[in-house]
TrEMBL record:
Entry protein name: MORN5 protein
Gene that encodes the chain: Morn5
SUPFAM superfamilies in the cross-refs: Histone H3 K4-specific methyltransferase SET7/9 N-terminal domain
InterPro entries found in the cross-reference section: Morn5
Superkingdom field: Eukaryota
Length: 157
């Protein structure tokens, strides 16, 4: 079994970097998401005893004082840090400007979804997963569509 300091990549692509004991996370370590977020924690035999999650954009989750998207304040984190845009200029995502959605696809937060192939790819067009029926319906119901916003430019023939 693994012991000492090491790196371990889970089947989901998430990577653990830190101390291991008897094949378990033990001591200081961090789980790093493929998308960039991470959970830094103190582990005891595979169980986190204290830790903090940091999102890709640098926003730190705080269970006690969580004020972000709480139902009363619906600003994106970049709006909290940098302020609102002038009236009439919408900010549709936390990224500004938002990612350009390929024609016929949806922006599902971690990448683009093509409802014809039912495949989700990351923003660099690498395969992430096949959507099941539940995710497919959720994306169609809630996510930004290419035909509602600016799509990628296609040169005229």
């Amino acid at each position: 079994r693994m012991e000492g300091f090491g790196y371990y990549t889970l089947p989901t692509g998430t990577q653990y970097r830190g101390s291991l004991w008897d094949g378990m996370f033990h001591g200081k370590g961090q789980l790093l998401s493929r998308r960039g977020g991470g959970y830094r924690a103190l582990w005891d035999r595979g169980v986190p005893t204290q830790g903090k999650y940091t999102f890709t954009d640098g926003l730190e989750y705080d269970e006690e004082k969580w004020l972000y998207c709480d139902g009363y304040d619906r600003r994106f984190y970049t709006e909290i840090c940098s302020g609102f845009k002038p009236p009439g200029i919408a900010q549709l995502t936390n990224l500004d400007p938002p990612k350009i959605i390929p024609e016929g696809c949806y922006d599902c937060g971690d990448g683009f979804y093509n409802p014809k192939t039912r495949v989700v790819v990351d923003y660099k067009r690498n395969f992430l997963r096949n959507a099941d029926d539940e995710e497919h319906e959720w994306i169609l119901r809630t996510c930004r569509k290419a035909w509602d916003v600016t799509t990628e430019h296609k040169p005229k023939p």
